[in-house]
TrEMBL record:
The keyword Lyase does not apply. PROSITE patterns: 4FE4S_FER_1, 4FE4S_FER_2. Pfam families: Fer4_10 (PF13237). PANTHER family: ADENYLYLSULFATE REDUCTASE, BETA SUBUNIT (PTHR43687), FERREDOXIN III (PTHR43687:SF1). Gene3D superfamilies: 3.30.70.20. Keywords: 4Fe-4S, Iron, Iron-sulfur, Metal-binding. GO terms for molecular function: 4 iron, 4 sulfur cluster binding; metal ion binding; oxidoreductase activity. This is Ferredoxin family protein. It comes from Thermosphaera chiliense. InterPro entries: 4Fe4S_Fe-S-bd (IPR017896), 4Fe4S_Fe_S_CS (IPR017900), Fe-S_Ferredoxin (IPR050572).
């Protein structure tokens, strides 16, 4: 899986809805003690997937390694 592509959460925008956690089939996310999502297993993320970014209702997810934004 990807080494240099993984989601980064903007906690200023994140509402803690956990849509990303519930959606991702690759166990990239875990839930923190405070109920917010944590990118716990970034190496599980599939390069160029963007699945969680598309469904995040608050546009809080970007990607490390995304040449479109870096
Ligand atoms: S889907 Fe977006 S707003 Fe919801 S928990 Fe994930 S990052 Fe936060
Ligand atoms: S981009 Fe895809 S594989 Fe990576 S965390 Fe989001 S849903 Fe999971």
């Amino acid at each position: 899986m990807a080494k240099n592509w993984y989601p980064v959460i903007d906690y200023e925008k994140c509402s803690g809805c956990l849509t990303c956690f519930n959606f991702c089939p690759h166990d990239v996310y875990e839930v923190r003690g405070d109920g917010e999502p944590l990118v716990a297993n970034p190496s599980n993320c599939v390069e160029l997937c963007r699945g969680c970014q598309k469904i995040c209702p608050n546009e809080a997810i970007s990607y490390r390694g995304d040449l479109a934004t870096e």
